[in-house]
Amino acid sequence: MPSRLLSVIALLCVASALHAQPEAPARFQIYGGYSYLSNSLNGVTGSHHSLDGFDASIAFLPWHSLRFKIDTAAYIGSNLGAPQHPIYILAGGQFSHRFGRETAFVEGLAGTGGANQTWAANGATGEKASFASLLGGGLDTRLTEHLAFRVEGGYQYSYFYLIQPSTFVPYLIPGLPRNFGRLSSGLVWEF
User: Number of helices and strands (H, E) in the chain?
Assistant: First the structure.
C-alpha cells in the first residue's frame, strides 16, 4: 500500500511539473491584415488624406523572446489629383512577452519605401524610393492553438522628394509629410 501511494504522489508531482513548464514559442509567425496610414505622400497642411491597404509579415525563430521580422505594407488612394501607391519593405527586430492568452510585442524596423512616379500634387513627378523606418508595438490574442488576432500600431518615418522637371534634382516643399501613424489588424498563424 505505501509503495502505491508513493507512486501516485510521484506521478502527480511529475504531471504538475510538466504542466507548469512554459509553452515553447512558435518557430514562425505569418501575419496578414488590413493597414491604415495616417496621411498620403503629398498630404500637405490642409489636404491630409489617409491611405488604406494591407500589411503582411513573417517573423522567424525566436532567441530569448527576440525575433527577426520582415514586413511589407502597401497602400492605395489619391490626394490633390494624384494617385498614391506607396509600398514599404522593412526588416528588423520584434521583442515579445507572453502573459496568459495575450502576447505583447515591440518592434523596430528599417528598410525602403517605393511609390509611383506621379504621386505629387496634380500628377507632378516625384522620387520613387525613400528610406523608411517603423517603431511600434502591438498585442496578439490567441484564438486557437496556432491562430491569433493581432492589433498593432506605430510611428513610421519616410520621405519622398519632388523632382524638378528640367534638372531632375530632388527638392522638398514645406509641409510635405515625413511622419506617419500606422495601424493594422489581422490574423497571425504560428507554427
Answer: 1, 11
